[in-house]
Amino acid sequence: MTKPRIALFIGILCISIFPVIVRMNLTSGLISAFYRMAIATAIILPFALYTKKLKLESIKMLLPIMVCGILFASDIAVWNISIQNSTATQATLLTNLSPIWVGVFSLIFLNFRPRRSFWLGTVIALIGMTVFVGVDTILNLQLDFAFFLGILSGVLYALYILVSKTVLEKLEVITFITYSMIFSTLFLFIINVVFGEQFFGFSNVAWVSLLIQGIVCQLIAWLLISYSTQNMRATRVSLSLLSQAIFATILAAIFLNEKISVIQMVGSVIILAGIATTFYEKNSIENL
To answer: Transmembrane segments in this chain: where (predicted)?
Structure first.
């Protein structure tokens, strides 16, 4: 297994902790999203300044980086609002349609034709996701405001993966992540002010959870995922991110005593089979 793939695997494990912490309801979803970004930014910014990683060849690069930061922050905000207005299962399912959008947008905007293995893997993985969440959940989806927010979340996620892939071809990971998270933090601060969220008054346990989200779920996770995005096809990265639903379920079983059903286990195997399909190459010399 190559370094980018190992980094992607560990990164997915790190972001899988986030839904488990959110389920504890120690803070609101929007506040947790803000502190997740703010804490990570507060840690990486001094490091980037000290190592002189904030230098840009052109000030024009700030625009695409800002777009990435806003796309990422918007995805988190929209996903959380979707959960608040429907269910976590529905919101997660709709958000995880992002691999389809990555493939479609790659074809339309980047003139990149995803391989057959990607589309086959996507179909298999989505079948697995359907089994994982249950057919009843699919049949009971309501075409309401929350439904379209869930769809929007998947679109924003896909756009972030694609735009960040383009930007990372020109920047180092540390440089990109630092600037991107600064813009995300500022954007989420404004969102929380608009929604009237309280920034203080949490329990000690809540603050510990926020630290974990900032350090593990954001800083470590997205440094690793960005490195993978820089060195792998965006279509593969987006589809691989579906596995976070599996890891989140396992972590919830360990830390929240939630039971894993046989259906979920079957769905997990199908999802992993779909992801594995995208890594199949007829020619072993082909690039990642």
So the answer is: 7-26, 32-50, 62-81, 93-112, 119-139, 145-163, 175-195, 207-225, 237-256, 262-280
